[in-house]
Amino acid sequence: MKNPPAPSELFTDEEKARSFFEAKRWPDGPVCPHCGEVDNAYKLAGKTTRKGLYKCVGCREKFTVTMRSIFEDSHIPLHKWFYAIHLMCSSKKGMSAHQFHRMSETFYGKKMSYRTAWFMFHRIRFAMTQHPLMDKLCGIVEMDETYVGGKQRFRQPHALAPGTRPMDRQSPLTKKAAVFSILQRDGNVHSRHVERVTAENLKPVIDSMVAVDAHVMTDSSTVLAGALTGRRHDQVNHRNEEYVRRENGVCITTNGIEGFFATLKRGINGTYHHVGRPYLQQYLNEFDFRYNARKISDGERTALALAATEGKRMLLHKPVSMEGGTPKIN
Ligand SMILES: [Zn+2]
């Protein structure tokens, strides 16, 4: 595209947003998603015609640029999608659907419903999901687990119901969800929501993501030691206040993964407040995506997310209820 429009125009002008997406997705002219023919279609321009509709000369089928992307079947204009994607890519701790729902009024003069905003964000997270690893994480790999959400209240003994035995008390972690993350030093992070942190649960995750000859670094967790049997593995002992150690010129630490967890926790606790367990993995995909694109600019990160919207379709045909203010897919 010779003169790419200013980002602000992409967020306010539907036509410009559409031509921008067409130029990005179809650099050699419109591609028919039905028969695959390139640059052999004409634009339909009737008064009642859908915006951006093309007709393929080869197979006579109609199509638009949003087909086979996360925008397919959506009534939300493209410029609003672009704005939502941009906000999500440029906010380090994430952007909640609630905040977008409130902000949409100032930006567009009309408040978008919370439900609509929720679905947009849900789909964007889906686009951000990384493909199953082509190349396994290698070199120096740090891994650790953390717990997010589900604040345990009434932990003090006096708040327990009379007659509660000490063994019936809940552990502070009972309501929290476990997250296990693996980071290649100076490379990408991959996070998984696991039901329970056990060697049996973690081993398959590690084996599917980490090369056999990687040098793994963890804290002194015995669970991880169990899951890493047979691998090259070094530990730092946080209990002895050891965080960084040098051995044969190699820096042994888990500071990288701890740094990722710090952002993740600030985001989950500060921006999203409550993340339903069924959706946690999608939030993790979002945080992984932003972290893995941390070295590029906000604009480049937005472009990367936009490119990831292609070929992904998430159709929700199932009825949706809004129990307790949060949309639930039944
Ligand atoms: Zn065709």
Distance between the termini: 43 Å
Mean pLDDT across residues = 85
The total of beta strands comes to 12
The percent of residues in helical segments reads: 25-40%
- Reading side by side through the largest sheet, how are the strands ordered? 6-5-4-7-8
What small molecules does this complex bind?
zinc ion
Rough shape?
Answer: globular
Rg value? 24 Å
Strand content: 15-25%
Q: Compute the number of helices.
A: 10
Question: From the helix content, strand content and strand pairing, which structural class follows?
Answer: alpha+beta
N-to-C order of helices and strands? HHEEEHHHEEEHEHEEEHHHEE
Largest sheet: 5 strands, mixed
Contiguous low-pLDDT stretches (5 residues minimum) are 315-330
Compile the SSE list and pairings:
Layout: H1 7-12, H2 14-25, E1 41-43, E2 54-56, E3 62-63, H3 78-90, H4 97-108, H5 114-128, E4 140-148, E5 177-184, E6 189-194, H6 199-209, E7 215-218, H7 222-227, E8 232-235, E9 244-247, E10 250-253, H8 255-272, H9 277-292, H10 298-307, E11 320-321, E12 328-329
Parallel strand pairs: 4-7, 7-8
Antiparallel strand pairs: 1-2, 2-3, 4-5, 5-6, 9-10, 11-12
Helix pairs in contact: 2-3, 3-10, 4-5, 5-9, 8-9
This protein binds zinc ion.
